[in-house]
Amino acid sequence: MNDHADLSVEAASDDRRIGGVQVAALVGSIIIAAVVGTWAYFFPAQFYDHFPAVLGEWISQDGPFNEHLIRDHGAQYLALGAASVFGLFWHSQIGYRLLGIAWTTFGVLHFLYHVTHLSHMSVSDQIGQVIVLGFAVLLGAGLFLPPRRHRAA
After folding, report:
1. Is the backbone of residue 119 left (phi > 0), alpha (psi -120 to 50) or beta?
2. How far apart are CA 93 and CA 143, in angstroms?
3. Using alpha carbons only, how large is the chain's radius of gyration in Å?
4. Quick one: pLDDT band at residue 85, thresholds 50, 70, 90?
5. E-strand spans in the chain?
6. For the chain, first and last CA: distance in Å?
7. d(C-alpha 112, C-alpha 93), whole Å
8. pTM greater than 0.90
9. Strand 56-57 to 52-53 pairing
10. Which residues contact 52 (CB under 8 A, 6 or more apart)?
């Protein structure tokens, strides 16, 4: 019975240990969520006309402006970002894995849409979009990577 109690304490402490890759993925996801979410939700016309600015203007190439859809997109990013901020303060492997499920599911579906709708873009925009969206998927997947176990001496 004592061994069972020791295992429970060990499992609980392992649940609170967060790996460096997980923290980096979480911080990267929060930054993306803050930038994209704020821009799309509060400035939808500018988001439509200029996102992602430095790399090109991808949104306006993909159909007419729809304020409702752009604000919804911004709200979704802000919601994921808010949940991710919570993860910075409440360290839990279960929490990080739930965030990983949410970010990875969104990232993969977002990636799949865009890689199947590239023909209207220049080659440089196509490459940029695939790299950026692929990186976002990797950030989501990074939330699943548990911390390394240290060998007992």
Report:
1. alpha
2. 9
3. 19
4. very high
5. 52-53, 56-57
6. 25
7. 27
8. no
9. antiparallel
10. 58, 128, 132
CB 142 within 8 A of CB 21: yes
Q: Give the pLDDT confidence score for residue 14 in this predicted structure.
A: 58
Q: What is the pLDDT of residue 10?
A: 46
Tell me how far apart the 2 most distant CA atoms of the chain are, in Å.
66
Structure-token pair, residue 135: 């990186």
Q: Which residues contact 29 (CB under 8 A, 6 or more apart)?
A: 80, 81, 84, 99, 103, 136, 139, 140, 143
- At 151, phi and psi to the nearest 5? -70, 135
- What's at 25, amino acid-wise? A
DSSP sequence for 44-61: HHHHHHHTEETTEE-GGG
Kindly state the tokens that stand for 45: 């016309």
DSSP state of 19: -
Q: Is the pLDDT of residue 8 over 50?
A: no
Q: Which amino acid is at 35?
A: V
Question: Quick one: which of 2, 10, 3, 74 has its CA closest to 42?
Answer: 74
How far apart (Å, rounded) are the C-alpha atoms in residues 22 and 12?
A: 18
From the number of C-beta atoms within 10 Å of its C-beta (0-12, 13-18, 19+), residue 123 rates as: exposed
